[in-house]
Write a structure and sequence with these properties.
Shape: globular
Oligomer: single chain
Number of helices: 27
Strand order of the largest sheet: 3-4-2-5-6-1-7
CATH architecture of the domain at 7-202: 3-Layer(aba) Sandwich
CATH superfamily of the domain at 7-202: P-loop containing nucleotide triphosphate hydrolases
Strand content: 15-25%
Largest sheet: 7 strands, parallel
Structural class: alpha/beta
Number of strands: 22
Low-confidence stretches: none
Amino acid sequence: MGKIITDTQIRQALKEYWGYDAFRPLQQPIIEAALLQKDTLALLPTGGGKSLCYQLPAILQDGCCLVISPLIALMEDQVNQLNQRNIPAIALHAGLKGADAWEAIAGIKEGNYKLIYCSPERMQSRMFEDLLPFLRISLIAVDEAHCVSQWGHDFRPEYLQIGFLKKRFPKLPVLALTASATPEVCQDILKNLGIPGAQQFRQSFARTNIFYDIRYTENKMGSLREAIQAQQGSTIIYCRSRKNTEAISSQLRTAGIPCVHYHAGMKTAARHEAQQSWMEGTSPVIAATTAFGMGIDKSDVRLVLHYDAPEDPESWYQESGRGGRDGLPSSAICLFNAADIRNLKNSSQIQFPGLAYLRQVYQAVVEYLQIPISAQPERYYPFEITDFSKKFDLKTRMAAPALRLLSREGFWTLTESVFQSSKAHFRCERQQIDQLPQKHLFLGSLAVALLRLYSGIFQYPVSIHIPVIAQKLHCNRKDVELGLRQLANIGLLDYEPAAEGPQLFFNSYRVDSQDLIINTDRINSLRTGHEKRTQAIIRFLEDDKTCRSKQILNYFGEETAEHCGHCDVCRRSVAGVASHKSIQETIIGQLKAREIPVPMSALTSQLTEANKAATIKTLRQLVEQGLIQWHPDNSFSLPPSKARRS
């Protein structure tokens, strides 16, 4: 049992570090369970504040919280936010190496951090194993916990290794968090993490302020423009391919609609510029691949539009949930046609190719990266799939799923675009450098400059900065880069030029492709789960008789007889009028999310006439009961005594 933390201390930390007066639903009981050292499974919707559930306990307890998270961008974003709040945090992932890794490890051993984020593949490394004895862990948090289940929509085999932490530290509490998991996936999470008796907290999957709208269309671009023009405010357009994000962005700009695009193949500066333009409202519309939005704190997204049909109900729920985080109405629109349904039905054949093709892709990868037989694992390589596919005469749409499947089998980890600075490491004796100016004056000066600028360059690879070296030597950058390559060619220096782009982290020893051991039973299980989820999303798209919200709730094991009253199905049906209780909860939820009064138009603009009338009637009743306040400009708010939720 850890030290006793009072309710006052919990709320003081919430106010001091996050500026909130109260918690969102279920946050406080989850935090209290973690502080009481109890294993916990928490299901909170997208935007429900999952990260606070382990960040706040980390502040209040001795030691550190170890957070297992699969996405580099998400880890780094959270670390930056924590550091800005004066909460010391660090991220360990496959993109961290050389001097950066050594510096991070030194700080961790000294106990400098309250939160340590770690990617699952880095957790399996020798470096992490050597680090474990130095860690004073108070809590193990597993983010995106559905990745541990083979029945989940984003299974990752390296997540299966997390269970060893519970065996090694049986008394440490584990907090598993996810935004979307069926009952079957929840049971898998508890089993694989070794926490069968964990407390479970589940917030309803109902998002009463998000209006689902599924539209069949043969003219997607026309329907897209129509939807954007009808909806004011920030918009995310989700696409299944990088090419589509660029094409849509270009066409919308031509039509006079400010739009930027975003995908992992872009340079870091370009992605950052696009994201900032959208965040600041300069370009209210962004066309992006589906990873965009994770960890991005933008509450006022009014429209999330899927230009391509989502892969499964989990993806639809998570991605549409990135809209309306401020509690105000938001539209979630999906455009689909017969081609989308055909692609979904054929997706299993593409997503799960035969063994012969998997071996072919593995062989192509090791040849592309020039990895010899029995080469050491845990090496990081720049990897551009378009260039790779072209060089080995592979179709990208076929190669990409094979690469992901081999990643799921644990051979490598594919990551989003990461910037790698130039690295250098002397592999020679000091006297060889001292003798160098006698034969190569410039190379000798360069070597001495490296020694003076970068301590530790003899012990391990260090990050170097070409412009700084050039300034020191009074020469240009090209001369420095050429000199570094020459030092590498004569065997004195290991030199890695700066690189940016998608990366491949090679996890295992390289073997001959014919000796590749692939778990066919696991692949067959994954295929079965994929087919089940594909059939579910097809039913969701094609069933225009059942309330969309009701379909989603039932999929996640939440039975309800109520209609949402505002999805495309309900708007076509008088029987779809929402219940008084549902309308009241929606109004209260939207007012809680705002510090300023909300106009009636914002509360009713997207409702059917029947639901609009029912909402106005409920507003009048809530005012009469003193539960909300009416203002002369026909807006509404909670009474001053009601605290705004975080």
